[in-house]
Design a protein that fits this description.
The complex is a heterodimer of chains A (268) and B (280). Chain A has 268 residues and is mainly alpha-helical. Helix content of chain A is 79%, strand content 0%. Chain A is globular. Chain B is mostly helical. Classes of the chains: A mainly alpha (268), B mainly alpha (280).
Chain lengths: 268, 280
Amino acid sequence: MVTRLDRLLVRGAGRFPGAVVAVTFCFLYLPVVVVGYLSLSPGAQPTIPLDGFSLRWYGEVFADRRFVRSMLTSLGLGVFAAVFGTTLGLAAAYTLVRSRLRASVRGAIGAVIALPLFVPTVVVAFGIGITANRLGIGFGLLPVALGHLFWVLPFSTFLIAARYGELDPAFSEAARDLGADRVAVFRTVTLPLLLPALVASALFCFALSFNEFLITFFLSGSGTTTVPLEIFGKVRVGATSFLNAASVIVLIIGALAAGTASAIREPT
Amino acid sequence: MRTSERRGGVRDALIASGPVTIAVLLGILPVAILLVESVAPGPSIDNYVTATTPLYRTSLIYSLGMGVAATVTCLVVAYPVTYWLAHRCPASIRLPALIALTLPLWLNYVVLNYTWVWILARGGILNRLLVATGAVSEPLGLLFSDLSVFIGFIYIYLPYVVLTLYVSMERLDGRLIEAARDLGATNRRVVVDVVLPRTFPGAVAGAIVVYARIAGAYTTPEILGGPGDVMIATLVVEAFEQFSALGLAAALSMVFLLIVVVGFVLGAQLPPVRRELKRW
C-alpha cells in the first residue's frame, strides 16, 4: 500500500485527484438518491428493490397535521431569520468594515459575533437553555426565534462584510460631494451595491434556520416543534416510507435556498 | 465637524448595539451562566471532580478522539479534491463542481444522517449488494457502531473542510508547482515542499471549524450510533431533559470547552497560521 502510494506520488498524481473527486461525489449523493428512490415505495416499509412506484407517501406527509404544522413553524422561523438575521448582519458588517469605532472595539465585536462558529454548539445551546430557565424567559417560539437569530448572525455578518469591504469608498464619497446626505448615500449607493450579498445572506440565513436542530431542541419546550425536531423524533422510532418522503421534501427546500444563494453570490 | 463626528460615533455605536446585544445575550451570557452553574452551590469544585472520574473521562476522550479521527480523515480526502478543483478542473465546471461538493452544507443534517440508515442497516442497500454478490454470507452489523458514526461524521463535515481548504488551494499559485517540476522536483516533493506549506492555513481553518462540532455532536451518534460509547453531547442533553445533575453537565461542558479553546490557541501558535492571522 505504502509503496503503491509512493509510486503514485513519484510518477505523478495523474488521475488520482480526479478519481477522489468522483468517489466523493458518489459518497455525497448516493445516500440522498437512495432515499429519494425509496420514498416512491407503495408500502409503509419500502422493500429493496421497490415492488412498484407511488407518490402516496408525499400525499401522506402533506396530510399529516403535525408535520404540516412543524413545516409552517420552520418556514416562518426561516423567513424571520432571513429578514432579521440579514438586517442585523448588515449592521454588524457596517460596524466591522466602515464604522468609526476604534479598531480594537471592532475586533472584539467581530470575535463576539463569531463565537457560535468556534464554541461547540452543544455548549452554547445548553447554556442558552439553562439561561432561559434560570432567568425565567421560558421556552417556546420566541426564544427559538432569538436562538436562530444568534445562530445565523455570524454567517450573514461575514458574508455581507466581505462584499462591503470590496466596495470602493469613492462611490459614496462622490455622492457626498454631489450633496447627498448619509441616509441618501446609503439608500441610493451602498444598498444597491450590497443587494446581491444581502439576498444571498437572506437565503443562507433561511437555510441555516430551517435546518437548525440543537439550539431549537434546547429552547423549544413542549409546545413548539420544527421540521428537524419532528424528523429526529420519527427517526428514533424507525425508518419508514413516510420519513423518506418527508426527508426528500426537506432536502429540496434546503437545496433550493442554498442553490439560489450560490448563483447570486457568484455573478460571473 | 467635531460635533458631526461625535454624532457619527453615537450613530455607529447605536448600529453596533443590535448585533452585539444578540451575540452577548445568547453567546457570552449563557457560557457565563454555565460557568456559575458548574460551581454551584458553593462555590465548589465537586462537579469538576465528578466530571473527571473514569465514567465521564471515557466519554470525553471518546468524543475528542472521534473528533480527531474524523477531522484528519476529512482533511485527507479534501486535499486531492480541492487540488483537483483549483488546479485540474476545467474552468467552466469549477463553480458548478464547487457548489455541488459544498451543497450538503445547506441540507438538513438530521436527514443526511438518516439517509445512511438505509445504506448500512442489515436490510439496507449495502448489505443487499454484499450478500447478492456473495461477498458475505449474511448481512453485516454495520449500523449502530463506531464505524457508522464515523461515516456519518465524514458525510456531514467533509463539505466544510472542502470549502475552507479550497480557499487556500485556490490562492496557491499553480506556477509554483510548475516551477518546482521544471527544477526536477518529484510529485512527492511538490506536495511536501509546495502544496502542504502553502495550504496549511486552510487545513487548520477547516480543522478548527469541524473539530469542535464533531466532538460536540449530538444527532449523528444518536441516529447512527450504538448504545456503547456515549459522546459528551448525549450526556449534556440527558441531564437537561431530566433536569437533574445540571451542575455536572455544566462542568462537563466547561471542561470540554476548555479543551477545545486550548486546542485553538495551540493551533494559532503554529508559525504558518500566525502569519495568516497577522494578515487579518
